[in-house]
Amino acid sequence: MSDGWIRADWPALPGIVAGTTLRDSHYELPATAQRLNQVHGTTIVRADSALFDSGPPDADAIIADKPGSICVVRTADCLPVLFCARDGTEIGAAHAGWRGLAAGIVEKTVAAMHTPARELIAWFGPAISQPSFEVGAEVKDAFLAADTGAGAAFTQNDRGRWQADLYLLATQRLRGAGVTEIFGGGLCTYSDAARFHSYRRDGTSSRMLSFVYRP
Fold first, then answer.
1. CA 163 – CA 52 distance, rounded (Å)
2. Strand 79-85 to 91-96 pairing
3. Given pLDDT bands bounded at 50, 70 and 90, which one contains residue 186?
4. Is the residue at 19 inside a domain?
5. Residue 109 within any structural domain of the chain
């Protein structure tokens, strides 16, 4: 780990570089990194798509299989999910807030990759933790509508609202899509102000970058 970013702790092949930048770091990605206009949706694009010719496309996940590709998403409380094929030939990055998760961004990213799900590994970057993520019943209902097992990711608080576990919700979706090797998690953007941006805490537009590069 450098001073400016956290390296993904996953068993990707040597040469794959992945992780999340820290708050106020000066870590810069190469100009070849493709950026997205994230809209909390479920659109996935490939890094070599012509959609990038006119600027960042509206999308919430990016995948690539060409040497030198860099996939990146921006987050501050939402969950960044990075993907890599076990053989290092394909990579991806998804921006998974609760809306995107509920709508299937994780499963759709897996389905859009050429690599079979059983040959993928995934890493969770920093996100808001369950104790800090209070949501209304409509959020819980959105997940339960697709999977009653999602109820395990919600704990009711003393205000009658719910504390949601994005890490568990994403894990459930990944496993449902056939991805079993899942790493990372456990870092809270809201409670760790020294290292991470948090929209809920600060109300600003600042974001961290989560990225994966294949040589």
1. 37
2. antiparallel
3. very high
4. yes
5. yes
The C-alpha atoms of residue 39 and residue 202 are separated, in whole angstroms, by 20
- 170 in Cβ contact with 126 (< 8 Å): no
We report the CATH number of the domain holding residue 115 as 3.60.140.10
Which domain does 96 fall in, by range?
5-131+174-213
Distance of alpha carbon 87 from alpha carbon 24, whole angstroms:
34
pLDDT digits (tens, 9 = 90+) for 103-133: 999 999 999 999 999 999 999 999 999 999 9
Mapping DSSP to helix (H, G, I), strand (E, B) and coil, where does residue 160 land? Answer: coil
From the number of C-beta atoms within 10 Å of its C-beta (0-12, 13-18, 19+), residue 101 rates as: buried
> Are the beta carbons of 21 and 27 closer than 8 angstroms?
yes
Tens-place pLDDT, residues 128-174: 999 999 999 999 999 999 999 999 999 999 999 999 999 999 999 99
The domain tally of the chain equals: 1
Per-residue pLDDT tens digits for 60-116: 999 999 999 999 999 999 999 999 999 999 999 999 999 999 999 999 999 999 999
In a domain, 62, yes or no: yes
Residue 155 belongs to some domain of the structure: no
Q: CA–CA separation, 204 vs 58, rounded Å?
A: 21
By residue count, the chain amounts to 215
DSSP states of 12-76: PPTT-EEEEEPTT------TT-B--B--SS--EEETT-GGGGGSS-B-SEEEE-STT-EEEEEES
